[in-house]
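Q: Joint fold for the lines below.
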Amino acid sequence: MKAIFDEAELATMKFGVGQPVPRTEDPTLLTGQGRYTDDLNRDGQAYGVFVRSSIAHGVLNGIDLDEARAMPGVLAIYTGADLAGYGPIRCGVPLKNFDGSEMRNPMRPAFPTDKVRFVGDPIAMVVAETPDQARDAAEVVVADIDPLPAVTDARLGAADGAPLLYNETPNNVVLDYHFGDKQAVDKAFASAAHVTKLGIVNNRVIVSAMEPRSAIAEYDPADQKWTIRVGSQGAFGLRNLLAKDILQVAPEKVRVLTGNVGGSFGMKAFVYPEYPALFHAARELGRPVKWTSDRSESFLADQAGRDHEVTAELALDAEGRFLGLRITGYGNMGAYIGQVSPMMSTLNIVKNVTSVYKVPAMEVTTKCVFTNSSPVSAYRGAGRPEGNYYMERLVETAAREMGIDRVELRRRNHIQPSEIPYDTVSGLTYDSGEFTAVLDKALAFADWDGFEARKADSQARGKLRGRGIGDYLEVTAPPQNEMGGIRFEDDGTVTIITGTLDYGQGHWAPFAQVLHSKLGVPFEKVRLLQGDSDELIAGGGTGGSKSIMASGAAIVEASDKVIEAGKKIAGHLLEAAVADIEFQRGRFSIVGTDRSIGVMEIAEKLRGGVDLPDDVPQTLDVKHVHEGGPSAFPNGCHVAEVEIDPDTGVVEVVRYHMVNDFGTVVNPLLVEGQAHGGIVQGIGQALMERCVYDEDGQVLTGSYMDYAVPRAADAPFFAFGTHSVPATTNPLGAKGCGEAGCAGSLPSVMNAVVDALAEYGVRHVDMPATPEKVWRIIQDARN
Amino acid sequence: MAKLHISTKINGEPTEFLCDPNDSMLDVLRGPLALTGSKEGCGSGDCGACSVMLDGRLVCSCLMLAAEAEGHEIETIEGMAEGEKLHPLQQKFLEMAALQCGICTPGVLVASKALLEKNQNPTETEVRYWLAGNLCRCTGYDKIVRAVLDTAAEMREATR
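A: Joint structure:
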């Protein structure tokens, strides 16, 4: 691949690619001037509040609205019947059943009219002059529901005789998924010297973005145009889904505007049933209608994460070489199927579970099951951390069972640099990576060999101590077609227009670093426009750790187009042949002379009005679409140490080191933060978080007092190391870093917990390793 | 119901507002006063996104009735910087990128400032426990805690 930057030049640039540049949006956010959806208000807006089912499963006989309609300030109340004209939410993942038949894809209407299917299922929306009036009226809406037995667990949901959510979906099985060569896997297991088998629960988590969901819908009858201000992960994709599936109008008749987003982690990416209801109310009432979820509502009705239960099996030969891998289990879909719901427990396990290892044969079998729980969708990694977790728990357990050192077992099975490009059994091709070097570097960084002294110190204080490795590799989402727009503005700034959208990642500075390094545009002049679908001609959005690959490439390619146009314009302005114009460090110059003109000067001249001949471009502005490319393979090794108080069962992560290969790092300051955040979300799932339903399908963990999101005192400081091997499949060489923290921390922390408890004969502990669970394990072992 | 007339001081400015008896301080800050830097993350005092100072004491404005502001002084995130000049904590958060989505950040900053006003030399553990009332889902707290410790060290150095 040809170098896209002048390396010598880059080394001199304060804001160049690779520099730890602070975030451009932070002065705004740090002073409380950020504009999140709930901070916005539209003239004349009314307020919507949703009436939600308090019963997990039941026949909806009717809804009595009379008393609510008479309440002060109430403008309208809408139920499912009113919203019948809007299209349903449907799954967009093209997966098929084992037998080749299509997956069941029951459509989700805005509000159900036949049955309620989970606690939190919206059945009506009250619109009133004030939020309090809407809330008061929503409280007196009476739903006539005949309760039915409920099931919230996927395994139980797929069992014969389980309550059926949809008559046309036998055993609640949405998708009976299978990947792999069964015969080859059976043969591998038959010939194995050792088989390690684990039952693993991948606990359901509540996403808990600190900004609850919020939206303001409007309708302009003159233009017949729908506008929604809403948090998302990409305005272009959400606009298209709303236009095509829900409103069934031409895309240009819908505008999605996304300002600051207070976290999403996958959760705000797609269409929710609240949106058609808000649109409908806005059109009927002729007013903007705003809704902001309260926190209880978000615990009930936001899409949740994870929730798989699997049996994981690894076949090894006598030397510990992996022969085959089998993952068999269930993925909980919740009560409705979302746009990507089945992907996490199927395809993304297939892609990610073999990680950094040579696995010649693999089989993944998953039943995706409807249950009376909130719909499940993507959450930080979306199958990537889980796949890595399954594998690393197997490797660790196999090492213990076979008496092979856990580090040696990993080394023995690593894909070696000499074997790259490496074709995996899942059909991917790894383009780069030095997995053993990363492991060795991480172990040295973490002082792996000094563990015994630290353990002795812990013991002296009455604590158990364990260490764990999380050797991971993630398959990022393949970058989709992505817009790279560059616009030279009248005020002398330069706007980058992207279809990716950051909800906390901080895209502005790193994207500006790429443009600055490539085109020589002053860093401080660069603006980022990302959240207005009217400005976008393409956009795969953000998710799957792909934004820097997608938008980075789009900006590089768009810059090349600016340079191409600039050469022609410069040739005219400098009165030289275009062939004699070269571009370097932001300037177009005539080869061999000192005559030159800067890109910003050309922009200024164009603004001032220059007469250019017809065969010369009249503008430097570019609207480019980068064509999607292959996935990248960020990888690394995390090493965690935990201390456990045997008297209380409290697990504390006391030491955490990591070495990551994110390829080319555009901004190390931000990349390190992405790792930290992902790691602590992983620590949360591993030690604290679990969404619990009772047997009637009621959510027992419906507030921050019942559901434990990690707090500042629950995490340690992290030691961050890097071993970069640039990707060869995108111009920047970047690999993506957004979800890697979770993939490293789930296995490293849980392997450390099991290691600490090994002296009690413990072989496996399911997440979350809460104090109660750990205390009971220790008590049971002692008795 | 008659509105209540409240006289208070917000970020040093004498301020009057009308509110309903059941309005929270956060409702009034975000609504009539248009100070939207304080956020509602839970409305139950569990997340700290609405943190403000009431007469020098750290409180959750979602748990405080607006009427209780009568005769008292309130400081919010909007009063933290002096004009264009960021507070040392804001400056350190900027340099270290100790925020991501930024929605919890105003509350974290107000709480951190309250800590440093009480304790100029906090330990890591003290910072972590003090900030345990402020939920952040993005950062993993590493940079937040480091930023508070580093700011404390620099502020001590500056006053030496």
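Q: Anything notable?
A: Chain B touches chain A through 58 residues (CB under 8 Å). The two ends of chain B are 55 Å apart (CA to CA).
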